[in-house]
Specification:
single chain; mainly alpha; 3 helices
Amino acid sequence: MTVDRYIRIMAGFFVMLSLALGVEGSPLFYSQWALAFTAFVGFNLFQSGFTNFCPPGILLRKLGVSDAGPSCGR
């Protein structure tokens, strides 16, 4: 897998987890403040689209994950 795929998987997981923790009808409900993490993930995805700065991407590259390979746009 590539860095892009790992980042999409991580972002999707964190959004789903924070929704499960923040929505009152969820069996995993903790606090509505968990929804702030959803906004944080969305903001980071938004800013990385413009600035190309993504801390998880930097970490994954240092761990040896490849940048090459098929992506959505290729």
